[in-house]
Please model this.
Amino acid sequence: MLPGALPVRQLAYKVNDLEAAIKRHHRQFGSGPFFVARHIKLASSQHRGVEQPFDHSSAYGQWGGVMVELVVQHNPEPSALHEMFAWNSGREGLHHAALFVDDLAVAIGRFTADGMPLEQLSVTEGGTAFAFVDARPSFGHMFELYEPTPLLTGFYDMVAKAAQGWDGRDLVRELG
Model:
């Protein structure tokens, strides 16, 4: 890998029905199992610099060598998801590719300087910060940026390990 290369760690799709999307993705691609986090609690979330609620649920599964996230937003307020898929539009599709970065603030500055401005910056109650930068003019989707903390990389490892030798049973696994 080239120095400074940022490999894709996850592909995330905005969906309308989490359970139906899990079944469809598994049926079409053999992905899974999926770990579901409902109504993910955030300490803060700013869309374009304005504090906004971001009530969302996500399902995380392994799709070959990459994690796949299926995400649904429950509230109508502005967000990076609604930048691409208007509230109640019924549209679904690729929303972002996730990248690990060494320093979130530096990476946001770099992407902004490259014409990919910050759309949303959120922090989970556990302290994990994630940022969506708008790469639609260049790449057709957003990028999600976050620092690879032990908690985050441990979660990625857990999802990947669950897929190794998986027999297809227990497709959906609820998280706390």
